[in-house]
Amino acid sequence: MLIGRGLFAARPIQRGELILTFQGPELSLAEVRKKGALAANALQVGRGLYLDLEEPGRLLNHSCDPNVGVFRGVEVRALRYIPTDAELCFDYSTTVGDGWTMACRCDTPACRGIVRAFLTLPEPIRLRYAVLGAVSPFLLDDFSA
Ligand SMILES: [Zn+2]
Fold first, then answer.
1. What are the residue ranges of helices labelled H in the chain?
2. How close is the Cα of 102 to the center of ligand 1, in Å?
3. CB 53 within 8 A of CB 22
4. If you measure from the C-alpha of residue 51 to the centroid of ligand 1, how many angstroms do you get, rounded to a whole number?
5. Distances in Å between the alpha carbon of 139 and those of 60, 108, 111, 126?
6. Cα-to-centroid distance, 115 and ligand 1 (Å)
7. Which residue, 15, 43, 47, 126, shows the most beta carbons closer than 10 Å to its own?
8. Is residue 2 part of a domain?
9. pLDDT tens digits along 96-121
C-alpha cells in the first residue's frame, strides 16, 4: 500500500517551518464509512468531522518517529530539521480519535506495530505531542476530560 508514494523534502526544512495545510471537502463519519477503502484519506479534524484529503496532504505517510507534526488540526510543520530528500511523515495517532487502526511498518525503534487512536498512546508520548502542540485540538479535549 502506498508503495512509491509519499512526500519528500525538496530542500532543507527548518524546525517549525509550515510545510502545507491539509485541505479537502468536509465529511461526516457516515460519509467516511460509505467511501470504504478510500476512507484511508480521511483526516479527522473534530468529533464526527473529517476532511477528504486532497494532494499533497493525502500523500503524507505515517511514522511512529515522525519528522513533521499536525498543528491546529491542519497545519503540517517540521518537528525537527529535515534534510533534502528525507520523507515527510507524521504520527497518524495525533489526528485519530475513533476506532481506526493501521498496521505500521515504519521500522523505527519507536514503532508501535499498530497505529491507533491518540488516547491509546503511552502517556509520555501523549504528553510530548501535547506540549509540542502537535496533536489535533479536539483530542486534547478528550485528554483533559
Ligand atoms: Zn511504526
1. 29-35, 123-132, 137-144
2. 10
3. yes
4. 23
5. 20, 25, 21, 10
6. 7
7. 43
8. no
9. 988 889 999 898 999 999 999 999 99
CA distances from 128 to 119, 121, 132, 139, 142 (A): 13, 11, 6, 14, 16
Cell of 92: 497518524
Residue 137 belongs to what domain range? 7-144
* pTM beyond 0.85: yes
Residues 91 and 10 sit within 8 Å (Cβ to Cβ): no
CA of 81 to the centre of ligand 1 (A): 20
> 88 has which bridge partners?
7
- Ligand 1 midpoint to CA 95 (Å): 15
Domain count, the chain: 1
Is 113 within 8 Å of 103 (Cβ atoms)?
A: yes
* Residue 113 alpha carbon to ligand 1 centre in Å: 5
- 119 lies in some domain: yes
Is 1 inside a domain boundary?
no
Evaluate whether residue 107 is within a structural domain.
yes
Positions of the chain with pLDDT lower than 70, given as ranges: 1-4, 37-39, 142-145
